[in-house]
Write a structure and sequence with these properties.
The protein has 862 residues and is of the alpha+beta class. Helices cover 20% and strands 26% of the residues. It contains 15 helices and 36 strands. The two termini are 48 Å apart.
């Protein structure tokens, strides 16, 4: 709710809006293995990962004559209970040798009307709504026996009448029975085939639609959190004899406390006494404890859930003990890749203790201190706590791969294996989840049958988690048109109605534990890349409040001057150099052979005289209005192409760097915005600039926006595009360019991540310099050489200042900055880059670089 208000679901299912200051957190029951957490008392400190979770429930009855909450049992394990609906969205289920994910649940509901008649409503999730409860009722408990529901008269008319017959006045009744009619399952792995998606989908998988009686529940889906227990959830005991009824004295002592939880009186309906159906119990409270492994290697057992808060590490350098990493170190033979295992991470210093595998680095110590910025995840063994895995079958000459031909029968091996080795319906010994890392080669797995074992990476295959949007894209139109998930539900922010049991809950985080650790969702297609990040342009207000606006103005300060016609010395003036630099800011030349859109001839044919007139107008605007630190080339033989280079502004992690962009004006221009590709060299220097070259910007219609944020054929220009990129993308605090992160400005989570992101950005900017010196874009060879010939000494002075204690992104044009130290890990990584910079700048005889041939590198305590 806007402001200091929260919506609270009460014990009886009703909802109330209260002031946030009047409530306190009693429990967080949604944690599961693999979730990343922070300490509630130090939200800006180190992170931890949940390795185990335990929940205890207190249960009450609400169906007495005065609806008073009677405490039935407490400290009940969820394993003793069953929900009204056995399956939820995202659940992992097993059918023989197959593992699948539930992506739709269809419910049949028997409704007892007030006159004693009974009807059965099929696919009730789209036809009935709870009566007298909050409109945003949690979708995991939409229907339960004893609940009042209503619907249109036509719904009851079309229902199957079990007792009596339909009357036009029928429109409301009481649920007497809820039954899961069918479940749609997307099959993701097999005990014979493993979890390779292409192999599984190419095989003869079972039908998507399954009877719930044929499925065995394995575990809840972590990305949907559909199965966590909360106050007001309805359930039944699996074995009635296990009910632990409290003594009479305890019931009275707890009644007032239960009423404070929100249990209210419900009018008694006489028809209920004749229903004869079993009413479920209601969860009155939960108590959750967690086992947590912290980044520094310490373990915390049975921590109260309220002492932890869920979080998402917003950069790729948040590593955890047990993870496999790779590092590249320079040698006489070139870069050598090393593989190792994280032992611990010092969050403050951004340093990691790594045990390296001797086979990959024979002369390395068993354990060394490394910078987080010099490490990357080893995706050949990309497993994490909580990951679902399947056991690989031992290699056997009698067992081939799906689709192999056996003998003269030409029968697929999968079919033959089924005949020779039938799998029991409830056998869960081949599917499990990771609970711990043992060493560089082994993990601890808890299997579905309850057993635990130590296995090597080669014995298991990780099941890749996917969002429901990805499920639907692969499956196609398998959902029902009368109330199942529509394509609109692909958006993980989709809203749900009270009866939408198969809809995706609002504000769902679809990232798997692995994605949460990496800090960003890997785009699966170009469409995802275009819509997953940043929302900035020069016309839009700067997000993040006054602080962010101030920092952005610093980045824009150096690009306010015009002067294309007088710009032959523009860059030299802007950077304070006296030496003349004759490179026109804007010029028209022949097209280069390395332009990204050169082969896009379908777009390059132009759009007629009107189009050519508009392009010439754009050229004129650029020639006379380009800021001092942006240089562009147009091409007379390909009027649709442009190339731009921007100089990183001082006071940002991009200072003195060069950033190249290729542009193309489509035939529909200006009705459609330009196409823009960033020359990335495979590096991610900004949330809005992808390694693939995609530039994510509202002005380019590659990210959602509205009004002035979007491209306007009448008002928008190429000049506006390039100024937006330099001023609002290449800014002082790029961390907050990530979509949704602007709200973190000034928060502990924001402060924890903004500096590491800027430090890594500066290191990537230096790597971009080295790439440009080796492979300058065609037509800008002399520009690149002359820029670093003059600015090379300033780059090295900045490095020296950072090694000496300046904060990244605070240096002005004179090399002065905030004297707050960078992290030790940043200085370690920077010390590895500086010698390469000195060598590269010396090779082009850069001014003043000889004095840096032995730059002082501070010693970092190990």
């Amino acid at each position: 709710m806007p402001g200091p208000k929260v919506v609270v679901q009460c014990l009886d299912g009703t909802e109330v809006t209260v002031n946030a200051r009047n409530v306190r957190v009693a429990d967080r029951s949604y944690f599961c293995p693999g979730m990343v957490v922070a300490s509630a008392s130090d939200r800006g400190g180190q992170l931890g990962v949940v390795t185990g979770a335990a929940v205890e429930l207190d249960l009450v009855r609400l169906d007495g004559e005065d609806a008073a909450a009677a405490l039935v049992a407490r400290s009940v394990s969820p394993a003793e209970l069953r929900r009204v609906s056995e399956f939820c969205l995202g659940d992992y289920v097993v059918l023989g040798p197959w593992l699948g994910r539930v992506f739709e649940v269809s419910l049949d509901v028997d409704v007892l009307l007030d006159d004693g008649t009974v009807c059965r409503v099929t696919t009730a999730d789209a036809k009935l709504c709870p009566v007298g409860e909050g409109s945003s009722k949690r979708y995991t408990n939409v229907f339960y026996p004893g609940q009042r529901v209503g619907g249109r008269s036509s719904v009851f008319k079309a229902a199957r009448w079990l007792k009596g017959y339909w009357k036009p006045s029928d429109g409301e009744g009481t649920v007497s029975k809820v039954e899961t009619a069918s479940v749609l399952v997307y099959w993701v792995a097999s005990s014979q085939l493993g979890a390779e998606r292409s192999v599984v989908q190419a095989s003869s998988t079972p039908a998507h639609q399954q009877s719930p009686r044929d499925l065995t529940f394995f575990r809840a889906g972590d990305d949907v959190l559909a199965r966590f227990w909360g106050v007001g959830d309805r359930c039944f005991f699996r074995a009635p004899c296990r009910r632990r009824v409290l003594p009479a004295g305890d019931v009275g002592a707890n009644r007032n406390r239960l009423r404070r939880l929100g249990a209210k009186r419900t009018p008694r309906r006489e028809s209920w006494s004749h229903a004869g159906f079993e009413r479920p119990l209601s969860v009155a409270s939960t108590r959750t404890t967690l086992d947590v492994l912290w980044q520094d290697g310490t373990r915390q057992c049975q921590a109260p859930s309220v002492s932890l808060v869920p979080t998402m590490p917003q950069n790729t350098h948040h590593l955890f003990p047990g993870q496999r990493v790779v590092s590249r170190t320079s040698s006489d033979d070139g870069d050598v890749a090393r593989s190792g295992v994280v032992r611990s991470l010092n969050f403050t210093d951004q340093t990691v203790r790594v045990s390296w595998q001797k086979a990959a680095a024979e002369h390395a110590d068993d354990e060394t201190l490394s910078s987080t910025y010099d490490l990357g995840r080893d995706f050949d063994s990309n497993v994490f706590y909580g990951d679902v895995v399947v056991r690989r079958r031992p290699t056997d000459s009698s067992i081939g791969v799906a689709g192999d031909i056996c003998g003269s029968t030409e029968e697929p091996v999968l079919t033959r294996c089924r005949k020779k080795e039938p799998t029991r319906a409830h056998d869960l010994s081949w599917v499990g989840h990771i609970v711990d890392f043992c060493d560089a080669h082994h993990v601890q797995v808890k299997w579905g049958d309850g057993n635990m074992s130590k296995v090597s990476f080669h014995e298991i295959t990780v099941v890749k988690e996917q969002s429901f949007g990805e499920f639907l894209q692969e499956i196609g139109e398998w959902v029902s048109e009368d109330g199942g998930m529509s394509n609109d539900a692909i958006d993980h922010e989709a809203q749900v109605t009270a009866a939408a049991v198969v809809s995706i809950p609002p504000h769902t985080n679809f990232n798997s534990p692995r994605d949460r650790v990496n800090g960003w969702t890997v785009p699966g297609a170009s469409t995802s890349e275009l819509t997953a990040r940043g929302n900035n342009n020069v016309s839009a207000p700067v997000s993040g409040g006054d602080g962010d606006a101030k920092e952005t103005s610093t980045a824009v300060a150096g690009i306010n001057g015009g002067g294309g016609g007088e710009g032959k010395q523009a860059e030299a003036d802007a950077t304070g150099d006296d030496k003349s630099f004759s490179f026109p800011q804007f010029d028209i030349v022949q097209s280069p052979s390395d332009h990204h859109y050169l082969d896009n001839m379908e777009q390059g044919t132009g759009g007629g005289k009107k189009w050519m007139k508009r392009v010439q107008k754009e050229w004129n605007i650029l020639e006379n209005n380009l800021p001092d630190t942006i240089f562009m080339r147009a091409y007379e033989d390909r009027m649709d192409l442009l190339r731009a280079v921007m100089v990183g502004a001082s006071g940002t992690p991009y200072h003195d760097g060069l950033f190249f962009f290729d542009l193309q004006l489509p035939p529909s221009y200006p009705a459609a915005p330009p196409l823009v590709c960033y020359r990335s060299f495979g590096l991610r220097v900004n949330p809005n600039l992808y390694p693939s070259g995609t530039v994510c910007l509202s002005l380019l219609n590659t990210f959602g926006g509205h009004g002035a944020e979007l491209w306007s054929p009448e008002a928008s220009t190429v000049l506006q595009v390039v100024v937006s990129i330099q001023g609002l993308v290449l800014n002082a605090q790029p961390y907050y360019n990530e979509a949704g992160y602007a709200d973190l400005v000034g928060t502990p989570q924001g402060r924890r991540n903004e500096l590491p992101y800027s430090e890594n950005t500066y290191l990537l900017t230096l790597q971009t310099m080295l790439h440009l010196l080796r492979r300058p874009p065609a037509g800008f060879e002399e520009f690149v050489r002359d820029h670093f010939h003059r600015r090379g000494q300033h780059v090295l002075r900045a490095c020296e200042a950072y090694l000496d204690g300046c904060l990244v992104g605070t240096l002005d044009g004179e090399g002065s900055g905030a004297r707050r130290p960078c992290s030790a890990g940043f200085r370690l990584a920077l010390a590895n880059v500086v010698p390469r910079l000195v060598e590269a700048f010396t090779a082009i005889d850069a001014d003043g670089c000889k004095e840096f041939d032995r730059i002082r590198v501070p010693t970092v305590c190990t």
